[in-house]
Design brief:
about 850 residues; alpha+beta; 7-stranded beta/alpha barrel; Immunoglobulin-like; 10-stranded antiparallel β-sheet; 6-stranded mixed β-sheet; 13 helices; globular; binds zinc ion
């Protein structure tokens, strides 16, 4: 009698990168073919079941071409044999916002309802690491499992993965691409044996799982490989992910705990690909802009509009509009840019031309929606009719759920030859302002009820501080116009005092900053450091013997007004124009890249703001913004999604691998909006805006905090890197990943006592830097009906951050999500807007959990890393 054989569970599946080394359309015809073949194989019983890669966008993409397949797909999905979801796309879940991930899961849920069923397993097999808050997010959708691979600790095949707030998922660490194990009867017997031996060794407690699939492949059905399996001592049993997880959880004993993000260096061929955090930063910046526009401005204004409409029209139906549908369309485009090969910048140039267009389309829709929502309140931002001559009104809009004061910059259009001579708030008080540029041109406007109109005008870049803006509300300001005014006095100087700072521009365009209240001097703040990069879109790879290059100052201008102090630094970055043909040295011929750095200190603020424009003309290098930090510090702290994360300060780069198919540790990390080192007078924080790659590292006797501005590389993937000793994708040239041409980025620095990451005021300042106030010129002769948005038309939150205020998924009402990202508990107060008649606490997926007592004010005690989702009805 033969020995009873161990079960090896098999899940046949495909991993479908929607776009990567081909464009979306270059893949889609194949996807339609694949889905039809899978349906046929399910009909014939060749597969017991099939996993359609955890992303419902596949259904959307196929049904656009073949709507006739819907009933057939729905039948297989409803029966549980074809499994889809729980995601709409397999995002790089570190590079998009928490709310982007929520919208992704909500969208998949709609597809689950439409097609009959959604997989309940948190499947994310290929993402290049995972954020600390993923277990919390999955729990918020009723999911308590995860399947991950890259970034998971290789020593743990199964573990309890725990978010900072204590949310937890039962996690399986499993590579997803074992197609070859069952592929060819002639060659794969030994592969199957090897696979079984390796897996038994990795998890002696079992059960074994073989993910029979790969990238863009139709896997061979497992049935005809039973004989080979018997030779390897196992019986192949087809199962679904859901059933496998139930069995694996039941079999698990003494599971290890893994807390926080998954960014551990992997074993052979399990690459983390950390260079994708900075490949094509223009892709990340475009995503940040549109995500911010949707989350901070469009969704809150739509929620406010709905609430106001429900009060105003009591008894009569609201005027029909397409706002929700337009919002949904914009999110659809943004989410289609979130897959790991899209947002990571590691696809072909053709693909990224398309991601750029998608981001632009979403931005245009969002911009139109925002202006339409303001127009519904009588705030008309269309520049039509006789241009302003005596005065011009502007509106400033907040994207924050707490009252804020902050810098506002608006493009103000006037009759040609007119200048701004004064600025008043709605109460008539004169407030400081600056016009930093004026340009002559024509303004054009047309709309459904406005004839096309083109006028000669001047456009002035007007800056001022908008004080005490209501939560998610707006205020108007009036610019007085005249014929002559004096601009800010500009001096050629490298030194200026501003507030508590003494600022001096050094030869390399960085700053020596002295805090005059403490005497502490920070030397080399905002140093722009270029290093040679012989890598690819996946990994930074330093050029041997290369020394970092710094810019040199050409000219500095200083201006100082009641409003702000500005240093305008004109500099040049001279770099080797590329790496050499041997790819082992940098070319001798130098090339100059012009660099324009403006450092602004707004009166009464704690931060110095950098706006940096580089016209990049050099290939094969990485440019970072660096600031020295306390050399004895061990830890740096940053936000990601809804939590504050601590990470160790170590070497910039780990040891280079000496064997094939391995990767060097490169401890860069994804950051949402701020990072800091230390507390007290020596502390330093960087506030970022759409630049996710940050690192704090030790360099000899010093330490620096660095954010990557761009990484210029010419290859999708290479096989000859030192930091990753084989390819990570096809070896294709991607000249546009060299990021040649102008790029503008914004970074702010907070020094000394202002660095308090547990303090809601610090967190609010970082949020405001990441999502600045929006400002629009109003239509000439059409002032807003009042000086500010109506009171109590939006929730106002103090003591915590607002992650979202959006229309609810189900008809009526809105969703308010607030977070306490810090390690300390927080007391939050929510002023409930007028017209809200019920408040319910809900899961992240908007499923109600419990009714809360209704009052004008709601007090919430948030635990460390707490997150609360409220349904306002
Ligand atoms: Zn992939």
């Amino acid at each position: 009698m033969s020995e009873p054989q161990e079960t090896c569970h098999v899940i046949s599946h495909v991993h479908w990168d929607r776009e990567w080394y081909r464009t979306f359309d270059g893949y889609r015809g194949r996807l339609v073919e694949l889905v039809e073949r899978v349906c046929g194989a399910l009909d014939k019983g060749e597969y017991a079941s099939f996993h359609l890669d955890g992303q419902t966008v596949i259904l959307a993409d196929v049904l656009e071409i073949r709507p006739d397949l819907e009933a057939r797909l729905a039948a297989h999905i409803s029966s549980g044999r074809l499994t889809v979801g729980p995601w709409h796309v397999l995002a790089d879940n570190q590079l998009v916002s928490a709310e982007n991930l929520v919208r992704n899961l909500l969208r998949a849920r709609r597809w689950g309802t439409r097609m009959g069923r959604l997989s309940p397993v948190g499947y994310s097999p290929d993402a290049f690491g995972h954020p600390a808050d993923l277990p919390r997010l999955l729990n918020g959708f009723g999911i308590d499992t995860a399947l991950v691979w890259r970034g998971a600790p290789p020593e743990h095949a199964r573990f309890r993965w725990i978010s900072p707030d204590g949310s937890e998922v039962f996690t399986v660490n499993q590579g997803y691409h074992q197609t070859e194990t069952l592929w060819d009867a002639g060659t794969s017997d030994t592969q199957l044996k090897q696979f079984v031996d390796t897996e038994r060794n990795r998890m002696p407690e079992g059960p074994l799982l073989l993910l029979n699939g790969g990238d863009h492949l139709v896997p061979r059905p497992p049935a005809d490989r039973q004989e080979a399996a018997a030779g390897a001592g196992v019986a192949l049993v087809e199962t679904t992910l859901e059933d496998f997880f139930a069995g694996a959880r039941a079999a698990a004993i003494d599971l290890p705990e893994v807390s926080g993000e998954l960014r551990t260096l992997g074993n052979r061929l399990t690459f983390l690909l950390p260079g994708t955090l900075s490949a094509r930063t223009y892709v990340k910046l475009a995503n940040h802009r549109v995500q911010t526009l949707l989350e901070r401005f469009v969704e809150p204004q739509l929620a406010r509009h709905r609430l106001a409409a429900s009060l105003a029209v009591a008894g009569t139906p609201a005027a029909p509009d397409s706002h929700a549908e337009l919002l949904d369309d914009a999110w659809d485009l943004v989410i289609k840019n979130a897959p790991h090969d899209s947002i990571c910048g590691c696809s072909t140039d053709e693909v990224h031309r398309q991601t750029t267009v998608r981001a632009q389309r979403a931005t245009d829709t969002a911009d139109l929606l925002l202006r339409r929502l303001l127009l519904a309140e009588g705030v008309d931002t269309r520049q039509h009719g006789d241009p302003a001559r005596e005065s011009a009104d502007v509106v400033v809009l907040s994207g924050h759920g707490t009252p804020v004061s902050g810098p506002a910059t608006v493009e103000l259009v006037t009759e040609a030859g007119r200048v701004v001579t004064g600025l008043r708030d709605a109460a008539g008080r004169s407030i400081p302002f600056e016009v930093s540029a004026t340009r002559r041109g024509k303004v054009f406007e047309a709309d459904l009820d406005l004839l096309p109109d083109s006028r000669d005008t001047d456009t002035h870049t007007l800056a001022f501080t908008a004080g005490n803006l209501p939560a998610f509300g707006w205020m108007t300001f009036t610019a007085e116009l005249g014929e002559a005014t004096a601009g800010p006095e500009v001096q050629k100087s490298r030194v200026v005092e501003s507030g508590r700072f003494r600022l001096e521009v050094l030869d390399d365009a960085s700053l020596r900053v002295q805090d005059t209240t403490t005497g502490v001097v920070h030397e080399g703040v905002g140093r722009l450091v270029s290093s040679g990069d012989r890598g690819d879109t996946y990994n930074f790879d330093p050029v041997p013997g290369d020394l970092p290059t710094l810019p040199r100052v050409v000219d500095v201008e200083v201006s100082r007004t009641e409003l702000r102090t500005r240093l305008r630094i004109n500099a040049v970055l001279t770099l080797p124009e590329a790496i050499g043909e041997d790819r082992d040295s940098r070319s001798a011929s130098p090339i100059d890249s012009p660099l324009d750095v403006t450092v602004t200190h707004w009166a009464d603020t704690d931060r110095l703001e950098w706006a940096i424009t580089l016209d990049n003309r050099a290939r094969d290098h990485r440019l970072r913004f660096e600031t020295p930090v306390d050399a004895d510090a061990d830890v740096w702290t940053a936000d990601q999604h809804w939590s504050t994360i601590d990470r160790p300060i170590g070497p910039e780069l780990g040891p280079l691998p000496t064997e094939a198919a391995l990767e060097a540790a490169h401890p860069v990390a994804p950051v949402t909006s701020w990072a800091c080192v230390g507390r007290g007078p020596d502390a330093v924080a960087l506030l970022t805006r759409g630049l996710p790659e940050v690192q704090a590292f030790r360099n000899g006797g010093s330490a620096v905090l660095a954010v990557t501005l761009l990484r210029a590389v010419g290859w999708l993937s290479r096989f000859d890197l030192r930091t990753r000793t084989t390819g990570a994708g096809p070896m294709l040239p991607v000249p546009e990943a060299q990021c040649l041409g102008p790029i503008t980025v914004n970074v702010a620095v907070v020094l000394g006592k202002g660095v308090q990451p547990e303090n809601p005021a610090f967190l609010a300042a970082a949020a405001l830097h990441a999502a600045p106030l929006a400002a629009f010129a109003l239509r000439p002769g059409v002032p807003a009906p009042s000086g500010r948005s109506a009171p109590r038309t939006a929730p106002e939150v103090t003591g915590a951050l607002v992650s979202a205020w959006k229309p609810a998924e189900e008809a009526g009402g809105s969703v308010l999500r607030i977070s306490n990202p810090s390690a300390l508990p927080a007391s939050a107060t929510v002023a409930v807007p007028e017209g809200v008649t019920t408040v319910r606490q809900a899961r992240i997926d908007e499923t109600p959990v419990e009714d809360l007592p209704l009052g004008d004010q709601l007090h919430l005690e948030l635990p460390p890393y707490g997150l609360v989702t409220l349904l306002l009805g």
